[in-house]
Amino acid sequence: MDGESDEALMLRIARGDERAFRALAPRYAARAASLARHISGSEADAEDIVQEALLRVWINAPRWRPEAAFRTWFYRIVFNLALNRKRRAPFAPLEAAGDPADPAIRADAALLRAEEDRRIANAIAALPARQRSAIALTYNDELSNAEAASVLGTSVSAFETLLVRARRTLRVKLDLTDDD
Amino acid sequence: MNRNDDRLDERIARYWQRGRTADEAVAAKVLASLNAPLPRQRHSLFDRWPSLLLNRDYAPAWPRVAALACIALFGCVVGLAAPTMQRSALASVRIADADGSALAFDTEPLTGARP
Question: Measured over all CA atoms, what is the biggest interatomic distance in chain A, rounded to whole angstroms?
């Protein structure tokens, strides 16, 4: 079952095959968690979002049409749930409390790494929701622009504009401008 | 893409990579919770009716269904054209065209009550 494509598994899930669902879910759970965490800005929310998204896949599988790639369909569910969650709750900056120290590396390196992570996290968190989503889709799963645009429900050119604006803002916030 | 774009990509990719452990922990928790019995799937009636018919050994061939639809259509056309009715009978059919608004808007002639 591991070698089967997502779409083949989905066809089996649509017929109520739980084993196929349990084979498909692990393929995307971690990446969905990452996407949800970066869009919603909360690890606790990410867990709820991924769980709900996977349950929606199971419940609505009979309505899924093979014309749509499973990956973009699933990420669209995650994206919509994360945006809804973010609209409901005020945003808490990602990793505001900092990372626990990693015993495997030296303390000063850990501090530098945590500081860099915090800066990037804050810069991404400060982006408007759609720009943040564009960044998350691009770096999370290396989706093509066409796939990411489909997840966001927009055109490829509009997605590229979002990405350019997001990158420009991030470059400024992370001091990566030309005079750097 | 200039040098700054490369550096930005590199930093974001590194940052993303470092979050993988947390994401995998979240994924493991979610997958563990999915070991519980799954809820019922949602089927639309439109998706199910062919199989429901097949389950009852009712599987008409499409040419027969098409022939039945054609006959039904023909019956409607004949019924609407009414070829068996006399022209005089058709002429006597009168569609209500009287102005009934007086019933609703005029005052009552005896009592003078207004509607």
Answer: 59
Q: What is the phi/psi pair of residue A106, to 5°?
A: -70, 155
A117 with A95: CB under 8 angstroms? yes
Nearest Cβ partner of B4 from A47, A51, A177?
A177
Same domain? For A36 and A109 the reply is: no
Query: Same domain, yes or no, for A120 and A163?
Result: yes
Cα–Cα dist A18/A28, whole Å: 16
Any domain includes A65? yes
Q: Is residue A115 part of a domain?
A: yes
ipTM score for this prediction: 0.76
Please answer whether residues A121 and A111 qualify as being in contact, where contact means their C-beta atoms are separated by less than 8 angstroms.
Answer: no
pTM given for the model: 0.66
Tokens of B83: 């070829």
User: Could you report the per-residue pLDDT of A86-107, keeping only the tens digit for each?
Assistant: 776 555 555 555 555 555 556 6
DSSP code of residue B57: T
* Domain span at A16: 1-91
A contact residues 37-56, partner B, Cβ 8 Å cutoff: 37, 43, 46-47, 50-51, 54-55
Domain boundary among A40, A60, A91: A91
